[in-house]
Amino acid sequence: MAREGARPSYDPAGPDRPLRGALQDLRTGRWMAMRTLLAETGQWWLWTQRTQVLAAAAAGTDVVRAWLAEEPDSAHAAVMQARVGVERALRAQRERHLRTHELWIEAWDAAQSASRVAPQNPVPWVCLLALAQLDPEQRWEEHRAAAPEPLLPPGPWGLLAEAGKRDPYNREAHHRMLQFLYARGGTGRLAEAAGYAQWAADRAPAGSALHVLPLYVRVERYRRDSGHDAALDLHWVAEDAARETRHALHAWFEHTHRAERSLLDLNHLAHALWGSHRFADAARVFEAIGPYFTPPPWMYRTSDRDRAVEIFVQARERSRAASDGSGPHP
User: Fold this and answer.
1) SS3 of 155, please?
2) Which of 137, 144, 265, 277 has its CA 20 to 30 A from that of 259?
């Protein structure tokens, strides 16, 4: 594959051209391309991924509401309505908006409704899992179910199980579970998140994106604790971090094709391989990333978020140079 240009770009659709077309249509206030795209999306993992991106673009508009008004019996429109509701509730919570609770209940109602009209679809259950992080005190009974393993904390395990029944090892469902664990706060919570990520990865088959989960927890740990390059670099050369990085490479990356991989997962793996000085392997992952870029995890290495792309380019070129033999090897 020919090498991509030196300056990557952030594109929420990444290499998914049909999704990019639907997003362009959505931004002009039209929903027909979104409807067609979802009708033609046959795999649940891709349905989950595409609806998440579409909802982020639609949350500030009335496009999905217009679709549902035009086609009130559309199960796909109902699921997208839940998606948009969740996106709005989470944004309100981040901005500490006074309507957060109201938007949360609206989103929960929409997700419950979507689960009834689209009973085989995992996305309504992913939506309910996403809302669980708004209840860090676990006041809702469904957010304090007993874990399937004694060492794991109580949480929205029933919601995770429902998503898993419809799409085993659903990537976003497990990331939403991680976000719930982060939201609980307090000392030791990151250790619980790390235990959960390892548990999920240990159960996942080869090729599952869940093998990358432990790398996200590591990024979250150093994001909270330091945020300085020196600390991050020391972090990745530690044996347990290097082991998790190797595992993600061999159990996920080497068992998947380009179209199956999340750009966010690829960026986290490239970042970890580069940080652990596995430059030849990092170069392979950078090639898979192509001309795209995701701000996390690179933006956590700088207080200037605009510099994140520069750090990405430096890491890519360092990895390529070592892989080609034109730079120093570790």
Assistant:
1) strand
2) 277
